[in-house]
Amino acid sequence: MENIRKVDLVVIGGGSAGLASAIAAKENGIDDILIIEKEGYLGGILEQCIHNGFGLQTFKEQLAGPEYAERFIQRAKELNIPYILDTFVTTITPEKDVFYTNEKEGLVHLQAKAIIMATGCVERTAGQIQLEGKRLSGVLTAGLAQKYLNIEGYMVGKKVFILGSGDIGLIMARRMTLEGAKVLGVAELMPYSNGLARNIAQCLNDFDIPLYLSHTVKNVYGKDHVEKITIAQVDEKFQYIPNTEMDFEVDTLILSCGLIPYNILLDDIGCKMSSTKGAIVDNNYMTSIDGIFECGNSLHVHDLVDFVSAESKEAGIAASKYLKGILNKSSEDTMVVNGNGIGYVVPQKYDYDSIDDSITFKFRVRCPMKNIKFVVSVDDMEIKSIRKLAVVPSEMEMLTIKKDDLIKGSKLEIKVEEVK
Amino acid sequence: MYDVIIVGAGVIGCLTARNLAKYNLKILVIEKDNDVGNETTSANSAIVHSGYDPLPNSSKAKFNVLGNAMFDKLCEELDVKFKRIGSITVAFDERQMETLKELQERATLNNVKTELLDKTKVHELEPMLSEEIVGGLLAPTAGIVDPFNLAVHAMENAIDNGVELKLSTKVESIKKVDDHFVVNDEYEAKVVINCAGIYSDVINKMVNKDDTSFEILPRKGEYFVLDHFNRPFVNHTIFMVPSEKGKGVLISPTTSQNYLIGPSAELTSRDDNATDKLTLSDVRRQASSVIPNIPFYEVIRTFAGIRSTPSTHDFIIEESKTKGFINVAGIESPGLASSPAIADYVVNEIVGKIIKLEPDTSFNPCVKKYIKHPGKMICKCERVSLQDVMDVLNRSCPPHSIKGMKRRVRAGFGRCQGGMCQGDVLKIMADFYGVDRMDIPYDNDDSFILVSKTKEEN
């Protein structure tokens, strides 16, 4: 007979989301927890983010990534939350079986009562953006270049161009410059930057690195390794504009073209997924599968780790309620609609009865806009509106709606309206 | 003195080497790249064609049909993924249905089993296909294979049976001296077999200087690769009916549960494996006429492969006018399907008539089985463990590059394309070979990944 170990709560991923959710569950009375981490350390991607700027919201101070992670790791250790490292979950089932593998134990079968998915995100690759030209070495994602530099102590190149103005690319522009590389420019396909304003200022402007908006890489040249790239301007349909090509002799092309929630486990078991590639969740961060929760960057990509921690804390509390039998899977979830100008909203549905006193919705706009208001309506009746002077897709918006303003079973819509 | 030198370690060179290893011969394979199967073998449609398409009585028809039938046993012995999923060539109108009937007659002449399908039957077998499709031609013996690992495992088996392999060695000269050949002024052999793929005309001219009987016209094919996804898509290889507009693209599952969409076909230079949006958007347009709503958001990679289109339009498999020098050239589609039969023919019908073949009774036709191991997981997307990686490093045809590892065990083949695991694979390989991480290339020897260290060593 197979010996199946039983665990109340399995948290998959020991990064910022996994740690915060496990800590919250433990603080809310759940003792039988297991965090499963694929790498040999807790903290996740924060360990390679050695720049500061983390923790302003949570701790009111500026910390480096590893310092921020350390606070959560210490708290998890104080609370004696069990964790296993170098361990990879190969499969989960809707019945909450968890199969993991590691060097010591081989393949192990756990039976959980609840699961929190905190598996983070991955970078969009050259293949996904269908980068033109040859498949040469010297083309790599910003996060991988960051790992080589900050964790392994190696530089990937000396003359660098960056495609995409995502935050990791901007951070790497500064980081590689400080390590002696020459960063010749950043090209961004969109007519606006996709990074945080502070990173544009501190990582590009302060180092005189040009940002080419509405530009993309048109070709990559070299025999075995990148030797040259060509960028070109694009029109509003992202077609190349003739005679706008510029060549750069570089040995490295870093891609910072966005992050995608990483959900290889949920995809396999028929969990309902959203267009952002995260799960569809309710206000308790429960997915379409009873007792499986999701939070952090595997749910949707956040701008700041502080927001990941806050969201994951809520997910951990929800999981603890579920395990205590206070929270059941709702049979009638109410849908949240992405109205005009809205890219996505999390949660995508809510369960009225389980709302304590309010829900916070997180969302992004589709494109930069000025002088607008966010309008929230329930069954087409406006219940709240907020003026905004300027909004950009790279900054996650949050709106809190009181339970009293909601009507059980009613559709909720968030949309953008122009202010005349 | 070697009995046989093979120039080029693509799937043809590797299978030929393995076949020669069945005899008591001293064999050397010389390959310009740092891995086997690094050109056409690793960038094609990964299809084992049934053989209904080539013109009857051509070399292509003969070797395709013979080769196809050999795949079950070969892939069993070499532990290579192969599945006979069948192909369906789809017609959009009555005129194309007529072409399918002609193709069926050709199939009968080639001794290939086919079945004409009406609209209902086509959609029953492949519900995702466009409603515009009015019928199809099913070829049940068509299959899919992992062509790169076919080459690797064949070479592994050849080496295990005594063949020598020299990688990263470009053949610069071949001289005929008395009754033998001298390659690069260094390696002597009684027989030289030219399996140099897109460079086979260049190699031929080293020996047969004025031979104009064939040229290789490098032809590029661009593809999309889709990720695994847990939704219905296609179960067969889907071909379009060849028309005046061209051969059309195919849509096919792969042995790794991905899907391939392509290829384009354009004449190019030998080293031009670049992809471009214009060509790929045409591939996309053609494929979308066959299956509407292809999930192109699942694309994880695009690539281009270069094929050796022969100026003669048929395979060139013969002893050249210089005795002892054998050309196996122009092996374009259906070259992969034909490869086992070509390798047999070259050994038995050509080499065997030049030198005496004496069976080696100790020949073992099987590689050690490849098993997926649990344990520390290196590649998360494709679930490749540390032990899986170590296993191929300890075999007789191990990878020397990140790409070589990726193609063997699939570490870095998945959704993140190595973003998460490349650093770990690099470290494991550097440790294994006892070199610095800067010395492990991405692909060929000059394709470095890391350029310098940021800190002094202690």
Radius of gyration of chain B (Å): 22 Å
CATH superfamily of the largest domain in chain A: FAD/NAD(P)-binding domain
Shape type of chain A: globular
Task: State the CATH architecture of the largest domain in chain B.
Answer: 2-Layer Sandwich
Count of distinct strands of chain B: 23
What kind of sheet is the major sheet of chain A? 7 strands, mixed
Our measurement of the CA-to-CA distance between the termini of chain A, rounded to an integer number of angstroms, reads 71 Å
Q: In words, what does this structure look like?
A:
The complex is a heterodimer of chains A (420) and B (458). With 420 residues, chain A is α/β, with parallel strands linked by helices. Chain A folds into three domains: 1-123 and 258-329, 3-Layer(bba) Sandwich (FAD/NAD(P)-binding domain), CATH 3.50.50.60; 125-257, FAD/NAD(P)-binding domain; 330-420, Immunoglobulin-like (Sandwich). Chain A has helices at residues 16-27, 56-59, 65-78, 142-152, 167-178, 197-204, 264-268, 305-323, and strands at residues 5-12, 33-36, 52-54, 63-64, 83-84, 88-92, 97-102, 106-117, 121-123, 139-141, 154-155, 159-163, 182-188, 211-213, 215-221, 228-233, 246-248, 252-255, 259-261, 292-294, 334-338, 342-346, 349-350, 358-365, 369-378, 381-391, 397-402, 412-418. In chain A, the strands form seven sheets. In chain A, strands 1, 2, 5, 6, 7, 8 and 20 form a seven-stranded mixed β-sheet that branches. Chain A has a five-stranded parallel β-sheet with strand order 10-18-12-13-14. In chain A, strands 23-21-28-25-26 form a five-stranded mixed β-sheet, with no helix packed on it. In chain A, α1 (16-27) runs parallel beside α8 (305-323). The longest helix of chain A has 19 residues, at 305-323. The mean pLDDT of chain A is 95. By secondary structure, chain B is an alpha+beta fold. Chain B has three domains: 2-42 and 147-215 and 312-354, FAD/NAD(P)-binding domain (3-Layer(bba) Sandwich), CATH 3.50.50; 84-144 and 217-309, D-Amino Acid Oxidase, subunit A, domain 2 (D-Amino Acid Oxidase, Chain A, domain 2); 377-439, no CATH class. Chain B is 30% helix and 22% strand. In chain B, the strands form five sheets. In chain B, strands 1, 2, 9, 10, 11, 12, 19 and 20 form an eight-stranded mixed β-sheet that branches. In chain B, strands 13, 15, 16, 17 and 18 form a five-stranded antiparallel β-sheet that branches. In chain B, β10 (174-177) and β11 form a beta hairpin. In chain B, α1 runs parallel beside α5 (147-160), α1 packs parallel to α8 (335-354) and α2 crosses α8. In chain B, 54% of the residues are buried.
